[in-house]
Amino acid sequence: MNEALKEAKKSYKNGDVPVGAIIVKNNKIIAKAHNEKEKKRNAIKHAEIIAIEKACKKLKSWHLEECELYVTLEPCLMCAGALLQSRIKTLIYATENEKFGYVKSIESILNNGKNNHKIKIISGIGREESQYLLKEFFKEKRN
Amino acid sequence: MNEALKEAKKSYKNGDVPVGAIIVKNNKIIAKAHNEKEKKRNAIKHAEIIAIEKACKKLKSWHLEECELYVTLEPCLMCAGALLQSRIKTLIYATENEKFGYVKSIESILNNGKNNHKIKIISGIGREESQYLLKEFFKEKRN
Fold first, then answer.
1. Catalytic residue IDs of A
2. What are the tens digits of pLDDT across the range A88-100?
3. What is the rounded distance in angstroms from the CA atom of residue B23 to the CA atom of residue B66?
4. Considering B3, B36, B38, B48, which one is annotated as catalytic?
5. How far is the alpha carbon of A135 from chain B, nearest alpha carbon, in Å?
6. For the whole model, what pTM was predicted?
7. Which of A72, B5, B7, B41 has its C-alpha lying 20 to 30 A from B24's C-alpha?
8. What residues of A are in contact with residue B60 (Cβ under 8 Å)?
9. Cβ–Cβ of B106/A114 closer than 8 Å?
10. B11-37 confidence digits (pLDDT tens)
11. ipTM value of the model?
């Protein structure tokens, strides 16, 4: 999660909401990404999406069954769907997203028994660090 | 929708589930795309996602508030989320996706009152043509 937090700081510097993600396979990092929605002026460029695209490219496959995705913020609806599409094995997120999180906060969309893939979910690792980054970012933005 | 169906046929030829999407602004097509998940070996490359990325690039903005997305198949969870992220005004889809559709079939995720954006939804235009393409594709695949 430290590597994901480092990625999140890159988004911060670019004026994007600080969110970072990494993908791990066999204890090795195979993809790193950070939120670039504002920088790239592109609605799709969330950290998780970019990380999944990089991992697919690296593995030359859209199947990420043996991979874990670490992200500093609870995924939104789009990114929760992308985790299903890529068949990620495990999702580890740092802190909840009360407004847009579709893993637990708004709805537990991944565990509703209606999808063709099941993802193991772990949360809370790096929560304080991620919350601090997000709070500082929005405080600066308001000023 | 005819243009979206033409796009779907391109996926068919590539061995990808035939789904096509176009984005329209002020009665002009600004993006065309087709499903390239298998071709690109990339879990993210659904027609809707590629179309949204192209439209953002064209408009130099992630805001697609004045745009309509036409797609030949009901969007999945990821693509429904992408429509919210890009603030698309209207979604027009041809036929339902009983297994993976998150606009109506599995769950009406866009109309649950829990999102920060509301999308107008129209369905059924080009339904027969889209169903025919999908049926032929899966029939060929089984043989």
1. 48
2. 999 999 999 999 9
3. 10
4. B48
5. 20
6. 0.95
7. B41
8. 41
9. yes
10. 999 999 999 999 999 999 999 999 999
11. 0.94
